[in-house]
Model the fold of this input.
Amino acid sequence: MATDPNLAPETHNSEQDDEQSQAQTVADQAEALRRGDPTASVKNDTTEVPDLVDHMRDMESSGRIDMGAYRGEPNMDDEEDRYGDGHDPDQE
Done:
């Protein structure tokens, strides 16, 4: 970068001569490489396991919580009949 001879020498910052290695330039280059929605899950068709993020979104949109994570665990609720039939996690 050429320095204007009419300016005082302290107005030139030699640390900024290499513009390509400056943080803002590197950040702009990195953002230009980003594509798509950063919150979208990556689909992997090689596995039979359902995607956890999609499963959570399905539960959220339906309003129904999948209690499968507790399947096989003992029900230690003192009021297991409180919510009526079909709400006992120990029943299959």
User: Anything to note?
Assistant: The mean pLDDT is 76. Helices lie at 23-33, 52-62. Residues 39-69 form one domain.
